[in-house]
From TrEMBL:
Keywords, sorted A to Z: Membrane, Oxidoreductase, Transmembrane, Transmembrane helix
Primary residence: membrane
Any Pfam family the entry gives: FAD_binding_4
Record's subcellular location: Membrane
Membrane topology annotation: Single-pass membrane protein
Highest taxon, organism lineage: Eukaryota
Keyword Membrane: yes
Gene3D superfamilies registered for this protein in UniProt: 3.30.465.10
Alphabetical list of InterPro entries matching this protein: Diminuto-like, FAD-bd_PCMH, FAD-bd_PCMH-like_sf, FAD-bd_PCMH_sub2, Oxid_FAD_bind_N
Protein known as: Delta(24)-sterol reductase
Membrane in keyword set: yes
Positions of transmembrane segments: 51-73
GO MF annotations, alphabetized: Delta24-sterol reductase activity; FAD binding
């Protein structure tokens, strides 16, 4: 397939060969005209999904509330312990991991992974690698904040510490992680081994870019501390995006920044074609005059249709400023408040406005409604009566939603629903929006910028070669500006009763990403084969670390951990024994 540049001859050829495009004129100007797709017949699972809210209200929500309360009590109990005691417990638990690894017989025990149940992970990817024989190591005890050091401006935490837990501890000190991922349940380990982003990432980069040091248990049981400038620096750069396939992360030291009590948030409506919406977003991320004083602390965009979006820019503000006469304070974290994405959407009617949001509530603004997925889970969940009476039970715990869905509903979501992130260069955001509109017609879309730094080694993700010479908007000599285009919802054609082939659509999205030097976070369902996986990501440094630190033969490779479909142990073992062809990494 040729590059899907929306203005190119290849794109028109692509549309001519795609059955969903054949009835459309070969142009992308009219984004209001939906694609013509065949009608689909409803089956039993459609009704199971439609009335799933009954199970959610009477089972999932009450159970979630109990689990959240139990976790909160555990966090409070941990915080009451002395720092010395928490560190001692941490060291004891690390030794248990080492002992467990040394009990493994490589000839019969299978490949190593955590003992966490497949449905507990927040990501949508099927954990099919746990459906074959494997050797489990229990990391469930690693959920403590070990130290918050205001002098070094570093927080040392264990991998199962989540964003809600750490912001609860740091915000009262007017400190915060430099990047706080929005959903409370996202864990430090997942954000480092995988992918994490927030509206401050246009300054600090991805979550893994804010890490100071990693404590890792290697395949042979050695415990090492990796930093960017010690003897394990190659491991330090290799861990992000590796999905835990180089060793077990048992603690991390993460950069802290000073903050203020409130976020001064400006909501700016944008109306026009998607390319104009994308340009307005780029201007919010990186003002055209290049004045660093105009760069906000936070940037976020939400695109509500093919012609409408709202850009939000935030600046930290003191309590004194927020409470000045005439300023509006909006505590968005209260259970009865409108869901944040709907509140932001009001800017399209009333125009630009400014308000002050308590900082911690701003960090977790998307938690209650899981961005906008809550609208699908509970169609009436955004109504005032429900928010007032039951909003305190929100959100349902993602792990319980997954545990109660069964294979039929899980497969339905894979085929008829989209949860994908596209990490694209800032200057290609307009192209990405048009591609998603024609391929999936999913709204709202989430826009969040992040720097992709030029590092001493070529990691799995890296900026475009020569970007520093192009002087594009948002780029610097040391980092290229990218954007996460978040695609989370049911395509409009499903609501119209038309067919949608989720697997084929994701395949075309992945090919678009490969051909546009863009990336797909691995928490999502992927359709990539191994060759295309290593066309999207670079394997060289990752494979260097795999062999140097003995991960081959102990931990499965990141591709086989990410790939869709159940695997036999023979397939995994053969893959572990194989040496990746370097041509995969070199292909563009």
């Amino acid at each position: 397939m040729g590059r899907l540049n929306p203005t190119s001859r290849h794109h028109f050829l692509y549309k001519a060969t795609n059955p969903y495009y054949r009835s459309q004129p070969p142009a992308m100007a009219d984004l209001q005209t939906p694609l013509v797709r065949p009608k689909r017949k409803k089956v039993l699972v459609d009704y199971l999904v439609q009335f799933r809210w009954i199970l959610v209200i009477f089972v999932v929500l009450p159970a979630s509330a109990l689990i959240y309360f139990n976790i909160y009590l555990g966090d409070m109990w941990s915080a009451m312990k002395s720092e010395k005691k928490r560190q001692k417990e941490h060291e004891d638990n690390v030794q248990k991991v080492v002992k467990r690894l040394k009990q493994r017989n490589p000839k019969k025990d299978g490949l190593v992974c955590t003992a966490r149940k497949p449905w507990i992970a927040v990501g949508m990817r099927n954990v099919d690698y746990k459906r074959v024989r494997h050797f489990e190591v229990d990391l469930s005890a690693f959920r403590n904040i070990l130290e918050i050091d205001p002098e070094r401006m570093v927080a040392k935490v264990e991998p199962l510490v989540n964003m809600g837990q750490i912001s609860r501890a740091t915000c009262p000190m007017n400190l915060s992680l430099a990047v706080v991922a929005e959903l409370d349940d996202l864990t430090v380990g997942g954000l480092i081994n995988g992918y994490g982003i927030e509206g401050s990432s246009h300054i600090y980069g991805l979550f893994s870019d804010t890490v100071v040091a990693l404590e890792i248990v290697l395949a042979d049981g050695r415990v090492v501390r990796a930093t960017k400038d010690n003897e394990y620096s190659d491991l330090f750069y290799g861990v992000p995006w590796s999905q835990g396939t180089l060793g077990f992360l048992v603690s991390a030291e993460i950069k802290l920044i000073p903050i203020k009590e409130y976020m001064r948030l400006t909501y700016t409506p944008v109306k026009g074609p998607l390319k104009e919406v994308a340009q307005a977003y780029a201007d919010a991320v990186a003002p055209r005059d290049g004045d660093p004083a105009k760069v906000p602390d936070f940037v976020e965009g939400m695109v509500y249709s093919a012609t409408e979006g709202v850009m939000m820019t935030g600046v930290y503000a003191s309590k004194e400023e927020a409470k000045k006469k005439g300023n509006k304070i909006n505590s968005v974290g209260w259970w009865f408040k409108p869901w944040f994405y709907q509140h932001a959407q009001t800017a399209l009617k009333k125009g630009e406005f400014v308000e002050y949001i308590p900082t911690r509530e701003y960090y977790h603004r998307h938690t209650r409604c899981l961005y906008w997925e809550g609208k699908l889970i509970l169609p009436f969940g955004d109504q005032f009566w429900f928010r007032f009476l039951f909003g305190w039970l929100m959100p349902p715990k993602v792990s319980l939603l997954k545990a109660t869905q069964g294979d039929a509903i899980r497969n339905y979501y894979h085929d008829n629903h989209v949860i994908q992130d596209m990490l694209v260069p800032l200057y290609k955001v307009g192209d990405a929006l048009e591609f998603v509109h024609h391929e999936m017609e999913v709204y709202p879309l989430w826009l969040c910028p992040h720097r992709l730094f030029k590092l001493p080694v070529k990691t799995m993700i890296y900026p475009e070669p020569g970007f520093e010479h192009q002087q594009r908007q948002g780029d610097t000599s040391y980092a290229q500006m990218f954007t996460d285009v978040g695609v989370y919802y049911t395509p409009a054609c499903i609501f119209r009763g038309e067919e949608f082939d989720g697997a084929e659509s994701v395949k075309r999205l992945e090919q678009w990403l490969i051909e546009n030097h863009s990336y797909q976070p691995q928490y999502a369902v992927t359709e990539l084969n191994e060759k295309d996986f290593w066309r999207m990501f670079d394997a060289s440094h990752y494979e260097h670390c795999r062999h140097k630190y003995g991960a081959v033969g102990t931990f499965m490779s990141v591709y086989y951990k990410s790939k869709k479909g159940r695997k036999s142990e023979k397939e995994v073992q053969e893959a572990e024994a194989a040496i990746l062809e370097p041509a995969y990494a070199d292909e563009a």
